Amino acid sequence: MADITRRLGWRHLRSAPTTHIRHHRRGRLVHDGRGLSFWYRSLSAALSEVPVDDRELAMAFHARTSDFQDVAVQATVTYRISDPAEAAARLDFSVDPDTGVWRGAPLEQIATLLTETAQQHALDVLARTPLAGALVDGVASVRTSVAAGLAAEPRLPATGIDVVAVRVVAIRPEAEVERALRTPAREQIQQEADRATYERRAVAVERERAIAENELASQIELARREEQLIDQRGTNARREAEEKAAADGIRTETEAARKVRLARADAEAERETGAARAEVQAAWLRVHGEAGTGTLHALAATRLAENLPRIESITLSPDVLTGLFTRLGRPEGGAGE
What we know:
- Pfam families: Band_7 (PF01145).
- This is Band 7 domain-containing protein.
- It comes from Streptomyces amritsarensis.
- The protein has about 325 residues and is of the alpha+beta class.
- The chain has helices spanning about 85-90, 105-125, 130-150, 155-160, 175-290, 295-305, 320-330, and strands spanning about 5, 10-15, 20-25, 30-35, 35-40, 45-50, 55-65, 70-80, 95, 160-175.
- The strands form three sheets. It has a four-stranded antiparallel β-sheet, with helices on one face.
- Strand 3 and strand 4 (about 30-35) form a beta hairpin.
- Helix 2 packs across helix 3 (about 130-150).
- The relative contact order is 0.06.
């Protein structure tokens, strides 16, 4: 919308670079072009404002396929007004000279024209296409048909409108039909997922079986080695017992031999000692047998004196001495000696 200001009964219009302004005064074209700025009187001015930028027109409509299935078509048409003079002559682009607001709805008229034309060609294509083909190849075929139909429409060039691009966003069936169409694919995907799950489980079971077999083999090998260890320990114990018994036997025999030798040595020593003692005793007896009675008495007294406690002093009377000598076998007259 143009920017209009008021000054002392005059109006000043300032337009954007993307709008084409046509100013008529008393039936004569005074200003014509884009991005104009000028003063005018509202009572004598006739203004038209035509947008010349690219415009996007979104459209949505229903169609029926050859197998009588309803589908929804979503498309977008990009257009622009290439000839503002023709567009202003065919459509009402006039604006209020005081407010700059369109008096009519020219863009809605263009949208209706483009939508009905595009819908006509889309319906023509989808009416000859089954639902499955429309969902698979319908977007490209509808886009091609709509673009060709809009290019061949004579009213568009006559109105100064050029179609820049046509895009078909989607072709969708009804919700129930769409769910029904999705079911086989979902079932197939689910079957593939189940198959993958079963294969994964089978692989897991196989791996668990291999692990169990490895564990069992390890246990068997461990038991076999334990058996060998027990046998080896028994062999070692028997060998140790045999070696110990042999050592004990050798030690016993050695000890017995040593004791025998000791006993023999003791016996020999006892014999020799006894013989020596006997010889000493015989010699002693022989000496005593050869000695006189007085000598024997003196020896007896000496032996007795050796075994008596120590006597510091002794006093003997003559009577005792006489009796003693008498017992020793001396004559009484010997006392005076």
